[in-house]
Write a structure and sequence with these properties.
With 311 residues, the chain is of the alpha/beta class.
Length: 311
């Protein structure tokens, strides 16, 4: 059901005819010509990095069950701390109407903040067809929401092998579902960026297999520096850097069989420079220290290193 061929010369038109032309889609008509596929992303010009802050960093305050901060307050804090952009996660919006999203976009514009993209929670390894359709619909809706806000990327997950299933079957299913999702999200011009997030993306080779199998011009990698727990996490990150449309940086990492260690920011910047990465370096804070104390310090450290390296 999910197998959909993609002709890069006509992918935009096919997506529009499937979804229909709406007031949101219309502004994108004719703006996306035939694009290069992802092998790897084409970089033009010198490497260039901008600091960003992921809303997940302030999850203890943004949790909608008992919030003490809203998504607007998150953006204000990011600006106060000197970040250049924000990544507002989908599950911290109390509503997602076009008017509310436009209001948030205006708020960020007034603060001088770029909205780097958004993030959605999904699982494309589910076995039930109805459940998968729901996952696709939610992801496509957030691609549209991200476009309304002016974001460039939407972070997605692949998922984990369901109990009683095989990884081979789960991977094959995820590939077809990602293809279908990319096809349906084409009118919005937002890159769907797959995060290395355990499950069937636990290693660089697993993730690269998905990237190459999907091979869609609006599909890329959301590179998370703290999510590989292999023997050589930095080596895995370097393999994926040429495919990264957005990079989320953690303050630590934990190689296989070792204790947690502080993230080597200079090493991360060096590999991104080598890959000619142009985009945001989004801090996703998961440390044990109080976020309101640690985040501004870590953000300032990142910004200083970027300046020192001329990125």
């Amino acid at each position: 059901m999910f197998r959909e061929k993609s002709d890069r010369r006509t992918f935009l038109w096919n997506g529009i005819t499937r979804l229909g032309t709406t007031s949101v889609v219309a502004p994108f008509l004719g703006l996306v010509p035939s694009l290069n596929a992802i092998d790897p992303l084409k970089r033009l010009g010198k490497p260039s990095l901008r600091t960003g802050l992921a809303a997940y960093s302030l999850r203890k305050y943004l949790d909608l069950k008992s919030p003490t901060m809203d998504i607007f307050g998150f953006a204000t804090k990011a600006a106060e701390w000197g970040f250049e952009g924000v990544e507002p996660t989908s599950y911290y919006f109390r509503e997602s109407s076009p008017a509310y999203l436009a209001h948030f976009k205006a708020h960020c514009s007034q603060l001088g903040l770029e909205i780097t993209g958004s993030a959605v929670g999904n699982d494309f390894c589910l076995k039930e067809e109805k459940a998968l359709e729901g996952q696709i619909a939610s992801t496509v809706q957030w691609a549209q929401n991200t476009a309304i806000m002016g974001g460039r990327t939407l972070r997605i997950f692949a998922g984990r092998t369901p109990k009683g299933d095989t990884e081979t079957a789960a991977v094959a299913r995820a590939i077809e579902v990602i293809k279908a999702t990319c096809k349906r999200a084409e009118p919005f011009g937002v890159l769907l960026a797959l995060e290395n997030h355990g499950g069937i993306t636990s290693t660089a080779d697993q993730l690269l297999h998905l990237v190459k199998a999907v091979d869609h011009p609006l599909f890329a990698v959301n590179l998370d520096t703290g999510n590989f727990h292999t023997e050589d996490p930095y080596g895995d990150l370097e393999k994926l850097a040429p495919y990264a449309a957005v990079v989320q940086v953690k303050v630590d990492m934990q190689p296989k069989g070792k204790a947690k260690e502080s993230m080597d920011y200079p090493r991360i910047l060096e590999m991104l420079s080598k890959a000619k990465y142009r985009g945001s370096l989004v801090l996703e804070y998961e440390g044990e220290e109080e976020p309101l104390v640690a985040i501004p310090r870590e953000g300032a450290k990142m910004a200083q290193l970027i300046r020192e390296k001329g990125l």
